[in-house]
Amino acid sequence: MSAPNNSYDPVEVNALHPDEVARMRQEALDAIARASSLEELKEVRIAHAGDRSPLALANREIGALPPAARADAGRRVGGARREISEALKARQAQLEDERDARVLVEEAVDVTLPYDRIPHGSRHPLTTIGERMADIFVGMGFEIAEGPEVEAEWYNFDALNFLPDHPARTMQDTFFVAGPNGGESGMVLRTHTSPVQVRAMLDRELPVYVVVPGRTFRTDELDATHSPVFHQLEGLVVDEGITLAHLRGAIQVFVEQMFGEGLRTRMRPSYFPFTEPSAEVDMECFVCRGASVGNPDAPCRTCSSEGWIEIGGCGVVNPRVLVAAGVDTERYSGWAFGLGIERTLMFARGVKDMHDMVEGDVRFTAAFGMEM
Amino acid sequence: MRVPVSWLREYVALPAEATARELAEKLISLGLEVETVEEVGADVTGPIVVGRVLTIEELTGFKKPIRFCTVDVGDANGTGEPQGIVCGARNFAEGDLVVVSLPGAVLPGGFAISARKTYGRISAGMICSASELGLWEDHEGIIVLPEGFAEPGADAGELLGLRDSVLDIAVTPDRGYALSMRGVAREAAAAYGVEFTDPADLPVPETTGGGYPATVADPAICSRYVLRGVTGFDPAAPTPPWMRRRLHLCGVRSISLAVDVTNYVMLELGQPLHAWDRATLRGPIEVRLARQGEKLETLDHVVRALDPDDILITDESGPINLAGVMGGLSTEISDTSTDILVEAAHFAETHIARTSRRHQLSSESSRRFERGVDSAVQLAAATRAVGLLAELGGATVEDGITHIDLSVPREPITVAVGHTGRVAGVDYPVETEIARLRQVGCEVVRNGDTLSVTPPSWRPDLTDPNDLAEEVIRNEGYENIPAIPPRAPAGRGLTHGQRLRRAVGRTLAARGFHEVLNYPFVGERDLDALQLEADDRRRTTVRLANPLNDDEPLLRTTLLPGLLKTLVRNVGRGFGDVALFEMGLVYHPRPGAPAKAPILAVDRGPTAEERAALEAALPEQPRHVGAVLAGQRLRSGWWGGGQDATWADAIQTAREAASVAGVELVVRAAQHAPWHPGRCAALYLAGAEDEAAVGYAGELHPRVVKAYGLPPRTAALEIDWGRIEAAARPATAPRVSTYPVATQDVALVVDESVPAAEVEAALREGAGELLESIRLFDVYTGAQIGEGRKSLAYALRLRADDRTLTAEETNRIRDAAVAAAAERTGAVLRG
């Protein structure tokens, strides 16, 4: 608390005169309004709100007033300073906004500039569609089984009921592994993923529900629709009470999930040594749904206006195969199917030529991205 | 098998309105794969009629002989007057019956016939050859029809079967019986539920004997052997038009009447026949296996060294036929043969299949025998053939018949009632099962809960209960099987390894690499181009016995040749900045593997030892990840310069791939083909540096770059993914401290030969457990630090998990780290 001031100077105290305070206030507010930049405003702040500003100086004089006048003068000066401070704050905000707006405009760029500095890669569509196909069965509870590509003839043929001299064995155009001194090796490049059926039955506890995606080999020259190296997705179920109806059901689920709800499937009798009965499976064309059949005005390229697309072979596992794999045929039965992955990619995604899937041209692969 | 529908209709009472396409659909649903339905002659229209040549006038003064004929075409020309036609052929005479295309007719290929002036006469039509009509291949001139064929004016197109439908059926190996009109007709009858007339059901003599002397050495090679002969055959007798037409539609070329008859009966009944010129045979016939050293020149003029497994037909002169596959040249029917002996036999399927494969000789006969022919049809087939030779060639059928029957009756198959339903998932009444089996020719006896089923002689493929189930189900219709989704037990999803493989693929793709799937075939040249040493393990390869390309008989031991060639292909197509990866198997013969993988029994499951023996023979087939990159790794552009792909990208890519599995790689300098000896890293599993490297990465050797035609400084990596997968361990959670980090930068000068990895390892060890991370942020060489030296600048991040480190502590840690580096690598703190 300051001591009472009994000796005051009337000249000095003139600065606290109401008119004078009002003048100083007005000058300050005018200066604030005139300040056109944050720098100018800073100077105005020093001049009118700083420690050496007229009102700050005037404030120091209040103590020199007679006690009765002090409160009055204090209110006047304090009010003016508050008003100036608020005006400064408001102007500061206003000028900052203006500056920001200007800077953001100045900083604008051409966002359409390409920025392909880091090239992107891709996964092969045969890989991704194979995963997609397998995953549908994984979703049904199947597991993925695997096996070697250079395979024993016994697994590839004998155990699958391909009898040694049966035409079915020579039909498959097999790559044989050379034995020592040009003799027989008992080994082949697997002609299908089916040997993994036998391996799965031998390796796993029954019941078995597996799919087998994998590479397979036949001595076909590369052309638009053939390749000596291709991929299959095999399916195998061995369980109690398994029938053709379950096979048809599994394929129906696959087709609807892969190609669309409500698509029909059909089975046609066929022959494979390792299944009996055997069938070829067709699905309704997912593009035209049969509308192109007999309708030359709206031909369908996907199904060649047949209305149906062949997707693979299947059948009830021949009990002879179960026997060779040590499965009790009194108790268990099974079914198997094989789908061509190249073929599926061709009709699913309109690939016209096998060369595209084989040559490794980055333009082809890049078009399919990372997932199917 | 090509099946003319008109011929099929002889044995099946098909509804008149049934179309070939509808028939094809029905046969497909029964399991005969009809590939095409050909409407032959559909483009031939207009009047094509029988005509009788009345007069022939030779026109002279032209470059070639030309005739002007008048031809009686009955009322077919609307006037009944003879038709004047100019003709260049000369193989006919006045009075002959010919085929005439009248004006308005259109012949195959859109060839329209009209009246026109030529050689100074009006020619109102054309006298046709078989080729012009599309009837069959013939270059003998016009067709001269046999006397009595038809009256002039009759519709020749109709009579000659000009328009027909032909089904082309891809017969599966189990359905040998469908390689005949008889077999397809039986299926067609079943499809329509109409009557079937069996063409093999013809009168055959009840007693046989007195035929050409013959013996069969072993019932296991031939279960039935029939010979029938004719004499007085007219070798000049032509094959009648109907038979030529049918042979042509079936894709069989007409040779001579005698040969055509054997082919015709084969198509009709499915039984391959052979005909000899009787005069060329020497003494009794014996059916036996070949002896070592025997030879036979077959009809295709190839002298074949015979194998003791080949079945032969022999006479006193030695081998005369490669049984069931091809006849011998010396006993062939000729254009003077008058006495003909016809053979119909049932040879063992497996022998014929082996002989056909061994001699690389596939014939219409061997195709049928391999698949199994009717074991009881031989007598009927031979009888049918000699009957046709008599009817068409004026021959006399000999009374004597050789019939050696060594067949054993088939054992019936016992099958539980309801088995079919348990296979199909459909309840078939037992009456349905029995009726369907009888429909396909089986004899069925019911004994309580089982059926005793004896399949017919033409169905050797029916041996097991499931074979019978298929017969019932396909005749009941596959379309009637319901779709019931299977109820699998809860699956375990993908294995960890399977998930990792997908993850590494995604990681590499995200890092700019495109996946490729190369063929695994390589040649010595590819390995040479990699500059592999003679004793490099990658030169020990699995070899194919029958490669597609003789230059690439080996299976890859490294992914690099395929990747590099694909990279070159992309560069050649204008993509110079390219990064590729592949994940796939390589193949290494197993050291000490047995010479041959055994063929195990199939009547039981293999024992553990047997399985092990198979695995021991198979090559090791590890899964590798390989990648190659060239050109710009980071592209240049408006933002500034790009960055070329280097050895460092390759090594880092390998590290990142391994890190997908949570596996850390330790990098060491190495010299390893095909990499640049100064820019090659060997990659080891951290903590297992004393084991073999799991891979290599770096820049390729300039000689490899040259040999493959690669862009300069192409970089590559290859790692054994199987070992990475095996080393993957579940990550454990690190402690994440929230106390402030203290950073310390140190620049250390070392000899240029000191690997940065060693300096870093020393710093890590010296810094101890408060070191959170360390990162090399600069490498400097230059005059300031002296020749042969380099400065490595590291940023150390230090942090405790229980307190804020003091300045004294961080300085002490830094000094300890530097001291360790100094001691182990001679590093000096840069002043």
Automatic annotation (TrEMBL), chain A:
<dbReference type="InterPro" id="IPR045864">
    <property type="entry name" value="aa-tRNA-synth_II/BPL/LPL"/>
</dbReference>
<keyword id="KW-0460">Magnesium</keyword>
<comment type="similarity">
    <text>Belongs to the class-II aminoacyl-tRNA synthetase family. Phe-tRNA synthetase alpha subunit type 1 subfamily.</text>
</comment>
<keyword id="KW-0547">Nucleotide-binding</keyword>
<protein>
    <recommendedName>
        <fullName>Phenylalanine--tRNA ligase alpha subunit</fullName>
        <ecNumber>6.1.1.20</ecNumber>
    </recommendedName>
</protein>
<feature type="binding site">
    <location>
        <position position="276"/>
    </location>
    <ligand>
        <name>Mg(2+)</name>
    </ligand>
</feature>
<dbReference type="InterPro" id="IPR010978">
    <property type="entry name" value="tRNA-bd_arm"/>
</dbReference>
<keyword id="KW-0436">Ligase</keyword>
<dbReference type="GO" id="GO:0004826">
    <property type="term" value="F:phenylalanine-tRNA ligase activity"/>
</dbReference>
<keyword id="KW-0479">Metal-binding</keyword>
<keyword id="KW-0067">ATP-binding</keyword>
<dbReference type="InterPro" id="IPR002319">
    <property type="entry name" value="Phenylalanyl-tRNA_Synthase"/>
</dbReference>
<dbReference type="InterPro" id="IPR004529">
    <property type="entry name" value="Phe-tRNA-synth_IIc_asu"/>
</dbReference>
<dbReference type="InterPro" id="IPR004188">
    <property type="entry name" value="Phe-tRNA_ligase_II_N"/>
</dbReference>
<dbReference type="InterPro" id="IPR006195">
    <property type="entry name" value="aa-tRNA-synth_II"/>
</dbReference>
<dbReference type="GO" id="GO:0005524">
    <property type="term" value="F:ATP binding"/>
</dbReference>
<dbReference type="GO" id="GO:0000049">
    <property type="term" value="F:tRNA binding"/>
</dbReference>
<dbReference type="GO" id="GO:0006432">
    <property type="term" value="P:phenylalanyl-tRNA aminoacylation"/>
</dbReference>
<keyword id="KW-0030">Aminoacyl-tRNA synthetase</keyword>
<dbReference type="GO" id="GO:0005737">
    <property type="term" value="C:cytoplasm"/>
</dbReference>
<feature type="domain" description="Aminoacyl-transfer RNA synthetases class-II family profile">
    <location>
        <begin position="135"/>
        <end position="346"/>
    </location>
</feature>
<dbReference type="Pfam" id="PF02912">
    <property type="entry name" value="Phe_tRNA-synt_N"/>
</dbReference>
TrEMBL record, chain B:
<dbReference type="InterPro" id="IPR041616">
    <property type="entry name" value="PheRS_beta_core"/>
</dbReference>
<dbReference type="InterPro" id="IPR009061">
    <property type="entry name" value="DNA-bd_dom_put_sf"/>
</dbReference>
<keyword id="KW-0436">Ligase</keyword>
<keyword id="KW-0820">tRNA-binding</keyword>
<dbReference type="InterPro" id="IPR045060">
    <property type="entry name" value="Phe-tRNA-ligase_IIc_bsu"/>
</dbReference>
<dbReference type="InterPro" id="IPR005121">
    <property type="entry name" value="Fdx_antiC-bd"/>
</dbReference>
<feature type="binding site">
    <location>
        <position position="471"/>
    </location>
    <ligand>
        <name>Mg(2+)</name>
    </ligand>
</feature>
<feature type="binding site">
    <location>
        <position position="470"/>
    </location>
    <ligand>
        <name>Mg(2+)</name>
    </ligand>
</feature>
<dbReference type="InterPro" id="IPR020825">
    <property type="entry name" value="Phe-tRNA_synthase-like_B3/B4"/>
</dbReference>
<keyword id="KW-0030">Aminoacyl-tRNA synthetase</keyword>
<dbReference type="InterPro" id="IPR012340">
    <property type="entry name" value="NA-bd_OB-fold"/>
</dbReference>
<keyword id="KW-0648">Protein biosynthesis</keyword>
<dbReference type="InterPro" id="IPR004532">
    <property type="entry name" value="Phe-tRNA-ligase_IIc_bsu_bact"/>
</dbReference>
<dbReference type="GO" id="GO:0004826">
    <property type="term" value="F:phenylalanine-tRNA ligase activity"/>
</dbReference>
<feature type="domain" description="TRNA-binding">
    <location>
        <begin position="42"/>
        <end position="157"/>
    </location>
</feature>
<dbReference type="InterPro" id="IPR005147">
    <property type="entry name" value="tRNA_synthase_B5-dom"/>
</dbReference>
<dbReference type="GO" id="GO:0005524">
    <property type="term" value="F:ATP binding"/>
</dbReference>
<feature type="binding site">
    <location>
        <position position="467"/>
    </location>
    <ligand>
        <name>Mg(2+)</name>
    </ligand>
</feature>
<keyword id="KW-0479">Metal-binding</keyword>
<dbReference type="Pfam" id="PF03483">
    <property type="entry name" value="B3_4"/>
</dbReference>
<dbReference type="GO" id="GO:0000287">
    <property type="term" value="F:magnesium ion binding"/>
</dbReference>
<dbReference type="InterPro" id="IPR033714">
    <property type="entry name" value="tRNA_bind_bactPheRS"/>
</dbReference>
